[in-house]
Amino acid sequence: MKKRISMILILLVLCFSMAVSAFATDGAEGTDGFVDEYYRMQDLAGVLTEEEAGEVQNLLDEMSVNLKFDMVIVTVDNLEGYTIQDYADDWYDYCEFGYGSNKDGALLLISMEERDWYISTCGYGITAFTDAGITYIGEQMGDDLSAGNYAEAFRTFVRYGNQFVTQARDGDPFDKSDLPKKPLSAIWIAISLAIGFGVAKIIVGFMKSQLKTVRAQAAASSYVREGSMNVTESRDLFLYHKIDRTEKSKNNSSGSSTHKSSSGTRHGGGGGKF
């Protein structure tokens, strides 16, 4: 219990200092619905350059204000003995992230020592970021996180976060049955076209080689064998049948599993290793 209280006090001090710094630097423009002006890119582990941190901060601010949905990224050296779920939830709750009364938002936590990542969701974030959706985002970030390309991984988080929230508000959150389709890279498209063209050329060449005795004829009648066709009767016959189709309901969605944090707030979320 004492350890939990100590952690909460540390979080409150860190969040307060960051909120004061951000407020003094940026002002309060466009912050209606948010508790305060604060840094949404909190790189405590120092994995970004100053330029990268500024760029990611701007991306997070732009999306959060435009969509009225808080997006936050936190990096830490280690979890201090806590589970990453508890750590991420407490960061979100005690730093008072989130938009509006429901605290709509999502927080990505990266712990360097444990090599863990976790996305904590709250409010509308639980709807927008389903369990399958969080796993999908983790897969898209995975290679960059493993390779130390943290800025690119964070850009991916913001990009898909924007897409997930927008899709959910259109009434159809991304889930197990309809996750975003990852576009093919230009290299794979070029390779596929080259292979297809090569196979087609080989097949056409082979077929052409089998037609050594074939010669083009001037008259169409030359292509009909004499006596092979004798029409004695003709009629038009219309056949039809009716087919009724009923669309199957999509019932293979995973939805979002939820839990309560130490503050009693309902959260969703999920994570993994990198």
Sequence of strands across the biggest β-sheet: 1-2-3-4-6-5
Our estimate of the beta-strand percent is: 5-15%
If you compute it from the alpha carbons, what radius of gyration comes out, rounded to the nearest whole angstrom?
30 Å
What is the overall shape?
A: elongated
CATH architecture of the domain at 2-179 and 267-273: Roll
Task: Give the SSE order as H and E letters.
Answer: HEHEHEEHHHHEE
Main pleated sheet: 6 strands, mixed
Structural class: alpha/beta
Tell me the span between the first and last alpha carbons: 30 Å
The number of strands is: 6
User: How much helix is in the residues?
Assistant: 40-55%
Low-confidence stretches: 20-29
Q: Given the structure, what is the number of helices?
A: 7
CATH topology of the domain at 2-179 and 267-273: Diaminopimelate Epimerase, Chain A, domain 1
Question: Overview of this structure, please?
Answer:
- The protein has helices at 2-26, 50-67, 84-94, 124-128, 131-147, 150-169, 186-209, and strands spanning 41-43, 70-76, 105-111, 116-122, 258-260, 266-273.
- With 274 residues, the protein is an alpha/beta fold.
- It has a six-stranded mixed β-sheet with strand order 1-2-3-4-6-5, with helices on both faces.
- Helix 2 links the parallel strand 1 (41-43) and strand 2.
- Helix 2 runs parallel beside helix 6 (150-169) and helix 5 packs antiparallel against helix 6.
- The two termini are 30 Å apart.
- The model is unreliable at 20-29 (pLDDT under 50).
